[in-house]
Fold each of these.
Amino acid sequence: MAMRITPSILNADLSNLTGEISRIPSADAVHLDVMDNHFVPNLTLGLPVVECIRKNTEKFLDIHLMIANADRWAPAYAEAGAESVTFHVEASDAPIRLAREIRAQGARASMGLKPATPIEPYEDMLAELDMVLLMTVEPGFGGQKFLDLVLPKIRRTRELVTKTGQDIWVQVDGGVSLETIERCAEAGADTFVAGSAVYRADDPDAMVNDLRDKAIQACRH
Ligand code: DX5
Ligand code: ZN
């Protein structure tokens, strides 16, 4: 199984985004956390900033929308040229239609779940998705402690995804570090967001490779 590291810039220098993205050439994507101060109690960046980033980097853009009214806003991020757009199921009235709209714009469609949201109700719509994002902290802030209670859901999600017979990525987001990544990989995650672990490291790009190595090792066991 391919193991992907997708660093979040939430703990990077937000006044120098293209510079910060250029520090992680080994990363499989850059994870951009869009927060609206409604769905989560924090405010980060929005569509105009993502459009500027798109003009300045070839990197795979992994957009994580932590915004209310996702049905209204998410397709525009795909239209702006992001390779992957994650909306939260808790913020969507019509997740199937939304996933189809994102795919119609040529992006990968991904659905995010907060730690207490179960995966089972969505089994029948997994085929509409290219990725499932499982939050391993309550969304809103970087640097929080990893929630081990999500591990069984990672396992169940991997089982349900395998049943579809499709290559749907399982991403974990929140508190992922050298200390926690093995647990996530063993449980079945293959795509790892790491914010503070990467951007607080002396050498962010070396950390990306160390995280990937650990995930690969854990998966072999
Ligand atoms: C939190 C964001 C995460 C966060 C990850 O709501 O979705 O992407 O920035 O940061 P760390 O790895 O520090 O938990
Ligand atoms: Zn995120």
Amino acid sequence: MPEPAQTYITTPIYYVNDRPHIGHCYTTLLADVTARFYRLLGGQSDAGNGRSQDVFFLTGTDEHADKVVTSAAAHNVTPIQWADKNAEEFKKAFAFMNCSNDDFIRTTEDRHKSKVLEYIRALQKKGDIYLGDYVGWFDESQEEYLTETAAKEASFVSPVTGKPLVKKVEKNYFFKLSAYQAKLQAHFDANPSFVLPEARRNEVLGRFREGLQDIPISRAVTADPTSQWGIKMPDDQSHRIYVWIDALFNYLSVVDTPERQNFWPPTVHYIAKDILWFHAVIWPALLMALDRKLPATVYSHAYWVRDGRKMSKSLGNFVTIEVLQAYASKYSLDALRWYLITQGPQGATDADFSHAKFVEVYNADLANGIGNCASRVSNMIEKYFEGKVPEYQSTWIDRRWETTSADAVPAYLTAAKELDLSAAFEAASSLIKDVDDLISETKPFTLAKDMATNGQEVANILACCAESIRIASIMLAPAMPQKMAELWAAWNCTPDASAPLAELCAFNGPRGIKPGHRIAKGAALFMRADTAEAPPA
Ligand code: ME8
């Protein structure tokens, strides 16, 4: 993927009929880690809040769905009161996850609504909108129109929630989606990473071959009070803009200002597979119609499931925010972030949320991984060199790095730029493993029994380990910003946030740990977890 000078990362905007759960937190976390990675890459991160001017990370809420009205009525409040309450829950959830979003858009805000009207007017002017009759199927739970073929294939129930589809005969405004078939096909052909992962791209292309039909972009305003909720069509108050069209425009409306316009087009839209068609086909066609550039990538991940089953309201098996908070307070928030990012469904396959797996990964990667490795090295530096990095032979440690670990940083960079986050962190973890192997193999604790003879060798080994850990910690920071900041505080090596990643990660380079540098032992970053313990609740 080309490296854009400005990076723009988005998540879906979530429905406010209900509270957030693990799925919403996961997609927003993927976006957060990517945003932190890009800030680090360009040397733009701000050590305080992790934000910068060259990366823009957006999340928010989708509020004009009919189910918001129904849900509000069931709770005896108005739709906007209900939306206010739940939008707040989403904000709190993402703050708890330590997500560094630069903005949070709510589709009920004026700054969004006014832009939506502008875009609809532009489409009308272009001749891409007409009034027609819709006869077909509607999935009320997903607010999605389905063609006869798609409805039949799904046995006339929602492919996502299993609820029966509703037959609709409506007068609607339509968008001429069919006019963009050839242009979209050409875009897919020329841009292999437009939709990732590949399985999802193939899915879209398969459906695409059946041919595109024009789609409704408005719904009638009727006597039913529910139908009052939404943005009215320009110059026709008897129609409101279909919630999906309203929602998709959020990606553009937020940055379509003189100060932010350079962020367009998006680097990546993170979504899950449920809303792929909207993002991979309808949204790019709308952008083409508006003469706007298309996002570089639509990344459509799979689902978190629980005990092998889809999470749903009827099964009552959601991993709730409370469950996530219990994990964070027991094992630390960064351990939770680590588990979600490295074990989550970023690829095409669903991932099971499991306590046993959590503990296994926590112990292997964190307590016995970076945590133990950093303690071992700082303890030895304390014991043998009074807490100061010893004078070392740079040729020895450079050679050692070249033969064992030099590929970790490039592997990390490549994977992270390809948005393969678990592969990126795998590369960072492999560096920690190299340090552990180096210690097991050279046994500095044994050599140190005779410092008069072996002092230089012990110094070389420990300096090499310390420098490798410093580099690994920088690569791990997008996933575990708090824990790595703790380590940097103890090791007195907080990276200069204005330096680019390649420079920070240069082994034994100008920003490397120098002889005489003080390293404090510090508290253990991660305490080992007992596998037999019950899941936190
Ligand atoms: O679809 N596993 O909102 P929504 C992983 N408002 N991710 C999950 C998940 C799971 N089990 N469940 C949900 C909407 N998600 C529209 C979007 S965008 C212009 C409008 C995440 O509240 C995932 O990102 O139903 C999925 O795409 C999104 O929540 C759907 O959120």
